[in-house]
Specification:
two-stranded antiparallel ribbon, Rossmann fold, alpha/beta, 10 helices, 361 residues, 14-stranded mixed beta sheet
């Protein structure tokens, strides 16, 4: 939870309160979206989510897995459950007891799940399914109403999964199953809300990860940025820089440009919003310092900037709000007491985790 507290603080920097969705609004919007979900599209999405989930290393490494019986509007879980049973995994499902969840082992979906459990959701038959203690569960596949790339989750309002996830073993990951439209930029979470470690959708696997890098001198900030470029940060990536004046955002961008063999010195494009630089990979440098949100009618301009080929680096990225892509790579900078610079690299996508390996100042 300490790590998630840091992630929540970073989320606040990247998406101040004006850009965060409150729970009531999200629950209402997600009910509308799920109710209008095209069944044919949902079937295709369910297949993709099932494939992605079953390919996770974490599932292969886990013996006892907690799942749940999906409702018609949720990601369909029966195919995942049956496959896990076929390969010999111990599968446990929740049942509601008062205000808590208990988990019972099932060996057959058709015979072990009662069709009229709490809230109309199928639950294990207590007559046939033995209780399994929470600390015996190696991995939790969890439902939810909405999520964000920082691991934020909101449920249906009863707090059942928040309470159970707060009691799980620290090494047992919580992985959410969701449609991509259920993942929003940032959720306003409360202190009692428990995060998830990953989110599997039909489009991606979100897996929040961060690392801290201290740079004593300006050239160390350049070296840190260059090591990211050398570590496969490149074409198609969007880097969102969040730091006050004087921390070294332009120095950071210069390091990227040098690593990409850029042909010119980097100059902050404060008054023109963007500059482009040639190199092994095109670099678009955007400065949103003078932006106070994207005005109505200006969306196409910013959408076009976000779609440019190559690598995109955005200073003062928090000013873009929801026009910043959900898969952006965030870098948060600050000046330490000894005048060194601390950079926190945050990535939300599983396929960006490699960026944390071997980076240096």
């Amino acid at each position: 939870m300490i790590l998630y507290s840091l992630q929540s603080a970073l989320k606040q920097l990247a998406f101040p309160n004006d850009w965060q969705f409150d729970k009531r609004t999200l629950r209402r919007e997600m009910r509308r979206r799920r109710a209008s979900h095209d069944p044919r599209a949902a079937r295709w999405k369910n297949r993709r989510i099932t494939e992605r989930t079953l390919s996770l290393d974490a599932l292969e490494q886990s013996d006892c897995i907690a799942l749940y019986a999906s409702t018609p509007e949720e990601v369909f879980t029966d195919d995942i459950s049956n496959r896990l049973l076929q390969i010999g995994k111990t599968l446990v499902f929740p049942c509601v007891v008062g205000k808590e969840l208990q988990f019972r082992r099932i060996v057959n979906l058709e015979t072990d799940l009662i069709k009229t459990g709490s809230f109309g959701i199928r639950e294990p038959d207590p007559a046939n399914c033995p209780l399994v203690p929470i600390d015996a569960v190696d991995l939790f596949l969890t439902p939810g109403v909405a999520f964000d790339p920082f691991g934020g989750r909101i449920g249906y309002g009863g707090g059942y999964y928040d309470r159970i996830l707060s009691k799980k073993r620290s090494g047992a990951p919580a992985i959410a199953l969701a449609f991509e439209f259920q993942v929003v930029h940032a959720i306003q979470n409360d202190d009692h809300d428990c995060p998830v470690d990953r989110i599997v959708t039909e489009e991606a696997v979100y897996s929040p990860h961060l690392s801290t890098h201290v740079c004593p001198q300006a050239e160390d900030t350049e070296s840190f940025a260059a090591s990211l470029a050398q570590n496969r940060l490149g074409d198609g990536c969007i880097v969102a820089l969040h730091a006050d004046l004087g921390v070294g955002k332009t120095v950071f961008t210069q390091g990227l440009a040098k690593a990409l063999n850029g042909d010119r010195e980097i100059i902050s494009p404060t008054f023109i919003y963007s500059r482009e630089y040639n190199g092994e990979i095109p670099l678009t440098h955007i400065d949103a310092y003078r932006l106070d949100g994207v005005a109505a009618g200006d969306e196409p301009f910013w959408d076009e900037l976000m779609d440019r080929p190559g690598l995109i680096v955005i200073e003062w990225a928090e000013h873009l709000g929801l026009h910043l892509p959900k898969n952006a790579i965030h870098c948060f900078g600050r000046i330490c007491e000894d005048s060194s610079r601390e950079w926190i690299l945050f990535t939300s996508m599983q396929n960006h985790k490699y960026l944390h390996e071997g980076t240096l100042c």
